[in-house]
Amino acid sequence: MHDSSSQNLGVNVSNLYWLSEEQMVRLRPFFPKSHGVPRIDDRRVLSGIIFINRNGLRWCDAPKEYGPAKTLYNRWKRWGDMGVFARMMEGLSSEAAVPKTVMIPSRGLHANRCGQRMPLISKRTARLRALG
């Protein structure tokens, strides 16, 4: 699927992040229902959102393998506003044998199309239980 020699902004596609099918099975119950037209591949888009946030990239610098940057941003923004990412974190953490609290400060972070580094959850500081 990916040419290991192709690069985008110096990012080798072999270094891209991809959610596994097993991970997607665990995450799917948290996705909002699709109304009408089926959504673009959730695995590709969610993997791209995670990659952008992990690496502190701007949305416009997303490797093309994840799809259009506008799609990544729009999905991140819409799902963040709907609380989808927070529900994912809370739901997954409830499965942990030994839960722990993770503080994600949001001071100075904001969403914009320029792609400043942003958390996968809402702007306010969130207390989340994470996998132990």
What does it look like?
This protein has helices at residues 21-27, 42-55, 69-82, 84-93; strands spanning 7-8, 11-12, 100-104, 126-130. The protein is an alpha+beta fold and 132 residues long. The longest helix has 14 residues, at 42-55. It has a domain at 39-130. The chain has a two-stranded antiparallel ribbon with strand order 1-2. It has a two-stranded antiparallel sheet with strand order 3-4. It is built from four helices and four strands; from the N terminus they run ββααααββ.
Quick recap:
The protein has a domain of 92 residues. The chain contains four helices and four strands, in the order ββααααββ.
Strand order of the largest sheet: 1-2
Major sheet description: 2 strands, antiparallel
- What is the end-to-end distance? 33 Å
Structural class: alpha+beta
Fraction of helical residues: 25-40%
Strand segment tally: 4
Residue windows where pLDDT falls under 50 for at least 5 positions = 1-10, 105-117, 121-132
Strand content: 5-15%
- Mean pLDDT level: 74
Q: Report the total helices.
A: 4
Topology pattern, helix = H, strand = E: EEHHHHEE
User: For the CA atoms, what is the radius of gyration?
Assistant: 15 Å
The 3D shape can be described as globular
